Amino acid sequence: MSPRALVALALVLATGAATAATRPSEPRVDPGATPAVPTAVSRARPAVVGIRARIPSDRPSAGTLGTERWGSGVVIEPEGLVLTVGYVVLEAVGLDVVLGDGRTVAARVVGHDFESGLGVIRLDGPGPYPTARLGRSGPVAAGQPVSIVGVSEDQRPVAVAARVTAVRPFVAYWEYMLERALLVAPLHPAFGGAALVDPDGALIGVVSLRVPEGHIAIPIDLLSPVREALLAQGRPARPSRPWLGVRAVGIEGGVGIAGVSPVGPAHAAGLRPGDVILRLNGDRVADVEDFYRKLWGTAVGSAIELGVFREGRVEPVTVRSRDRYTIFQFRAP
């Protein structure tokens, strides 16, 4: 099979492997179903909210994530700070939040962490609001019972009894990797931004994506190191990772390009779907994880020399990486 055919096959597999909440929902789970840990759900549910986001059609994320998005979030401060998954609110200019008591209040985006995938928003209405207690994700292990608590698009709370099936790295094709992700099952119909709580009702993660085995949840321990900076400046204080704007999929012998962002440096450099990256700055690329680690080991703004297999031959392509925080609107103006 040719490299181009392998990339096409890998794109099909990658598209089904990790799905954001903006895709069609799963079959509905009865929100009145009795959870395995009712105490945990009853403690967390008042703090779980529904989020409707509006994004201008000319923003870079609108083409892939849509201009209207729905997700869940969880209030973590009585003054109205809400934690959610970042893609739900990325570049939003308007947010309507449905509270646990049925009221709807406006909100604004406070910050976004592209590395973890977490986003924070702040409610505009007067508090205090019910809050979830923050737990710890570090001790979580496979086999632990948990609950997923979210709000469906028709504004109904949905709780699903679940279990952590694995704790492992997660590598995604949009230049994203978690060193320690929580894999949970079964599926939840309103998973994007839903609260993952332990048997005591403490928040241990934010559910992000649907994968073949269940859902990926972002560990809550990733919030603490960036929380202060997110509130102060809308982004983490750590140095940004260099970004190319590619959708990378693993194929034998390299990394296939399944797509490129129209606003990314890879597109500007002429990379296109079907290309296969074999080398980065002269070093062989083994797989997607290896590609990311080599890329993220360079400085933002530096020229990346890629060895690209295209139309039967290897061509050199130079891409100057960028800081994606300069491209995407990551907090309210």
Please outline what is shown here:
The chain is built from 7 helices and 18 strands.
Topology:
Elements: H1 3-17, H2 38-44, E1 48-54, H3 62-65, E2 68-77, E3 81-85, H4 86-89, E4 94-98, E5 104-113, E6 118-123, E7 145-151, E8 157-172, E9 176-185, E10 195-197, E11 203-211, E12 214-219, H5 224-233, E13 246-251, E14 254-260, H6 265-268, E15 276-280, E16 283-284, H7 288-296, E17 303-310, E18 313-320
Antiparallel strand pairs: 1-2, 1-4, 2-3, 3-6, 4-5, 5-6, 7-8, 7-10, 8-9, 9-12, 10-11, 11-12, 13-14, 14-15, 15-16, 15-17, 17-18
Q: Overview of this structure, please?
A:
By secondary structure, the chain is an alpha+beta fold. The chain has three domains: 36-132 and 224-233, Thrombin, subunit H; 145-219, Thrombin, subunit H (Beta Barrel); 246-326, Pdz3 Domain (Roll). It has seven helices and 18 strands. The protein has helices spanning 3-17, 38-44, 62-65, 86-89, 224-233, 265-268, 288-296; strands at 48-54, 68-77, 81-85, 94-98, 104-113, 118-123, 145-151, 157-172, 176-185, 195-197, 203-211, 214-219, 246-251, 254-260, 276-280, 283-284, 303-310, 313-320. The strands form three sheets. It has a six-stranded antiparallel β-barrel with strand order 1-2-3-6-5-4. The chain is globular, with a radius of gyration of 20 Å. The model is unreliable at 1-17 and 22-37 (pLDDT under 50).
